Amino acid sequence: MILRSTDSRTRPTLRKVRSTTTLRPLHHRLDPARVEEIPFRADDGVRLGLTRVDSGDTDRPAVLLLHGHTASADMFLLPETRNLVDVLLDDGYEPWLLDWRGSCRLPYNETGQKYTYDDVALYDIPAAVSHIRRRIGDRPLFVVAHCVGSLTLSLSMTAGLVPGLAGVVSQGVFLTPKLAGRTSLRMSLAGELLRSRIDHIPVDIRKAGLWSKYTPLFALASRGASCPDPTCQILHNSAWGTGASLFVHEHLSEATHHRLAELLGPAPLWILPHLRRIELARTVVRWHDGDHRYRALPRNALDAAARIDTPVLLLAGSENGLWLDSQRLCHDVLARRQPQLDVAYTEIPGYGHLDTFLGRGAALDVFGHILEFLGERR
Amino acid sequence: MREVNEDVSVYAGQRATAEAIERGGGGGLSVDALLAKVRTAAAPTPAGTDVAAAAAAVPDVEGPVPDVVPDVEGPAAAVPDVEGPAAVVPDVESPAAVVPDVEALAAAIAAVAGRHLPEGHLSPDADFFDAGGTSVGAVELVAALEDELGMEIALDDVFADARPTSLAHRWLSTSHTTAALSAPAAPEAPTPGTTWAPDTAGTATSGGTSAPVTVGSPLPPSAAGTRPAPAPGILPVPAPRTAPAVAVTPTPYSTARPEDLDQILADLALADRLPWTGDPEPLPPRRILLTGATGFLGSHMLLDLLRHSDAHVYCLVRAADEEAALGRLGEALKKYELPWSSEVRRRVTVLPGDIRRPHLGLSDELWTTLTHELDSVVGVAAAVDFLRGYQSLRQSNVIGTLTLAELAATGRPKPLHHISSIAVFNEVGITAMGEDDPLAHVDRLVAGYDQTKWAAEVALRRARDHGLIVTALRPGGIGGHTRTGAYNPQDLSSGLLSAFGRFRTVPAFNHLNAAPVDWVSRVAVGVVCEPDAWGYDYNLTGVPNTLDDVVRDMALGGMHVRVQDWDEWRTHALARLEAEPVPELAFLNRVLQSPTALKLCEATLKGPAATAERTAALVEALGLRPAARYDAQAQLRTFERLAQDGLARLPHKDDQPYLWFSETTEGGVGPVGAPADTPCSMALTLSLASMYQLVKERRVDVTGELTCAAVHPEPLVVEHGDVWIRPEEGIPQRHGMRHRLLSYRLALRDAEGGRWWLEGHKYARARRDVWRQTRALTVEIGREGAPAALAGELVVPADTYLRDQVDGIKVDPRLTSQEKRAAKLTWLAWFGLEMGRGLLGPFARAAADLLDLRRTTTPSEHHR
């Protein structure tokens, strides 16, 4: 059976005795002198990445950018298109980029210790926010968050761990995650079947090899795909085997399409139970019920939504193939249950999930909404 | 596309001057220049009046003068006037004598017309619509002219040519012919032109037929002069050819007006003045000039150009200065739900100008710079108005296009991408509309819009002979955006779609050649950015909708329509619009009453399906979204927007319900916190106005009554009630496993007028009493504005459930039995699926909790 075969072609790595975790270098076309990489650890000691892009001014509002799970800060720095960092710099903001522990610039998704989204909400985001606060003083701090970055941010916010933000832009999903029934089913079934055999799903066949225990996954992902690139197939056609679609293919430039394996890394399978619990409840819920270290987090973020103390812009592509219309649902639910909150919803016609940041036309179609929201509150 | 029509025309007053400059633009001593000299020498009247005077002599098509038609059939029509300038001169029937009258009348008309314009005044030579006049304004103008000047002018005449001078001439020639024209003409010269005025209708085939045309030439001197001089030898040809034609064209509005045809010929000849040009560099464009960016298609194309190329786009926008132009462009983009941010602005430069003016109204310096720096010219701007005539539209649609051709051919060679229209085929009875099929016969195009689009495309065909790379992109109907629903309120298809839904009738048509704007725009931009695609004709018509498709689509949305014959439908629609006027559909009303526009509609509805092999091949090669039928799903957002804006109408609660059934519940309630021991029951009727309501709002309307002694001894009436199916995706109201299946919210009134509310929920839980979960309603009842006083549980008795809610479903009796069955099944399938999903939710969560108890074994993949 292919799945049981051991992979003998990979060399063992040396046990890290003296060196620590290092981040893969960022890929950007900014002046290297303007990009400040901060040695940064989360409150539980895990090495993360925090990057500040220096604008030369010292009085600009700061914007913290949170990537999605398995992506990295690179998704906001695409050198081949007009990216969000360019746009923010031109509009008078100081971008900060956090690589939280789900970043593909960090090794944890593949080899590191396991974590849940509770850790991200409790340790990573609050630590980054307080670090930035120390540096910027009383300048306003905004957050633009994508996908799971936004989902975990909602948990931090409802826990009251990041108070006093000037505004939050949430892309894709916020408090009420909703997956298609098919995606949910595949995620649960495949996760259960595979979890004793593999612990992550790679997206780059060049690292897995043509004949490996992952081959059937790539083969399944290629079913009915229009693009022959296996990485594109497993992301665009199948979203790590779940059958959802991460972006509208036409929206990516050729260069971005070639870099997909660099922009999105392997997805860990051991995160699935938490994701499944969240998705089936249709609300962000805490994983650790018995662990008192996590008691700062609410059991159910939606019930604690009254603690949100900042304006929120919910963004979503109308064709989001992964989280569907979660953002519209979130807007409706919050409007009914927490009418005092300042929550707006903007749908980007024709866009999917990831292409709202990676798309070649994202600056035209998406970033304008972000700038407008930030501009009204800066 | 409509851009040119709508707003205040800054330049309206200067139009005549502009035209004059443009005429001079040809330079050199061309035939026209010589001719103009001869003309002015012989008839020393101001250019404008000279033209207008000539126009006056042309008999009306709609009048009893069918004989004029044949005259323009052949090229010979143009002949006499070139061949013998001397002969022309006397024909301009004694301008000196007529002009004072005409001028005075025209000035009076202009004064009246000015009041109906945003500017407040109108030059006698400027077109009322070009100056910003609207169709409503035209109706008012006709009324005012009758009241104040006693002129009875048909509305259609105003649409055909709305220059005050022309109107004056028309009035003088039709009603006061003898007084105004013949009388002064008599002493001057007894030319054929004068004797030939309307009363000579019977002498159609007389030898003199060709002469009047000379007289009748309404061409501006320069345009007239641009006619190529044909060999004199063809002169005798027309006479025999005219004879049969006379007999077959007795009905008015079946053919073009001769003066329009003359004008078309003259305008086509303008293409011959274009410079010779070479091949452009075959590279994707970096600097593009786009006209019509404030219009419906143009604004979508602007964004697509920015998205799918790295080009900087120069937008020609009609405005006084750059700030105003930028403002107009921004407004337009926002109106069509397109982004307008600093990111868009940094790649766009607006050029304040006017497509109707020479050199687009740009300074010479800017014009020269553009001729050398642009890589591509994209002409989208056009006046889209199905009521106005050729004279009124030509400046925007034909002359403007030729100016773009001049821009493209001058300096660095650039391709010209021209948005034409399927209207170039819009002849009643045309058999094929392929990309390379012959265009319509222009003399059988009646609507001014069709004529101008035909003339522009044919003129550009001539431009191709000058070396210019011209792409003609012909959209059919341009439907609303499939994602945003942005639509063109002036578009005929928007009006028709709204009317179909409102009146629940459709006229029998063959095909609707319509495609959504996002597809049309994307393909057009694909052509602009792909050098190998340049220079051909494309039909951007998508996949045509057949009558069957439309009827089926509407039925799918719960709007069952009946098919009527075109005339029957028109009468019916007009009567309905008369009985209950819809201001938003006023333009449709006017179109349905305009004889020329009707011809256009008829040709559109009875035309064949347009075919588009070249476009399909291109779309495939570029990897674009293939054309898909503009079906119910694609039209949904547009229809919602139409309804929101008052054009269309969605089925409403007060209408005859689409489907309904009854539901009875029994149980008990008691004070909150106490046992629920007071018997309580409800007899409700649940109804749907349409499937749309169900799928979009997930809501069912409720009527009926509540009987509960704890509230009131008499039954309470449901004043307003809703049931939501799986509200908020069933998300529990509080952390837990109780997912909501259904939510009831009723406003009740008791016999004494007291008001109460009832709120009830059916919950799904991970328990084995699934059958009961679907029936048990947990309720709270309270006085209006007060908290709940009573709580309890009402349950639908198991034995009535199937009887009432499956067997007892009633469907709108107006539907056919097949439609009824389909409606019933659709409801049951949809509702059943929703209930299934709702009930499954808690069980799935429970199962996941059990699975999470499994020990996590992590295989060692650390080496990776």
From TrEMBL, chain A:
InterPro entries on file: AB_hydrolase_1, AB_hydrolase_fold, Cholesterol_Oxidase
Pfam families hit by this protein: Abhydrolase_1
Residues annotated as transmembrane: none
Residues covered by the AB hydrolase-1 domain: 61-153
Keywords of the record: FAD, Flavoprotein, Oxidoreductase
SUPFAM superfamilies: alpha/beta-Hydrolases
GO molecular function per UniProt: oxidoreductase activity
Cofactor names: FAD
Domain of life, per lineage: Bacteria
Statement: the UniProt record of this protein carries the keyword Flavoprotein: yes
Family listed: Belongs to the GMC oxidoreductase family.
UniProt name for this protein: Cholesterol oxidase
Organism of provenance: Streptomyces olivochromogenes
UniProtKB/TrEMBL annotation, chain B:
Protein name: Polyketide synthase
GO MF terms, alphabetically ordered: phosphopantetheine binding
Signal sequence residues: none
InterPro entries referenced in this protein's UniProt entry, alphabetically: ACP-like_sf (IPR036736), FAR_NAD-bd (IPR013120), NAD(P)-bd_dom_sf (IPR036291), PKS_PP-bd (IPR020806), PP-bd_ACP (IPR009081), Thioester_reductase-like_dom (IPR010080)
Tree of life domain: Bacteria
Keyword tRNA-binding: no
SUPFAM superfamilies: ACP-like (SSF47336), NAD(P)-binding Rossmann-fold domains (SSF51735)
GO biological process, one term: antibiotic biosynthetic process
Stored CDD domains: SDR_e1
Pfam families, sorted: NAD_binding_4 (PF07993), PP-binding (PF00550)
Stretches with biased composition (Low complexity): 179-211
Entry keyword annotation includes Phosphoprotein: yes
Stretches the record annotates as Disordered: 179-241
Keyword annotations: Phosphopantetheine, Phosphoprotein
PROSITE patterns documented for this protein: CARRIER
Domain Carrier: 100-175
Regions annotated as coiled coil: none
Pro residues biased stretches: 229-241
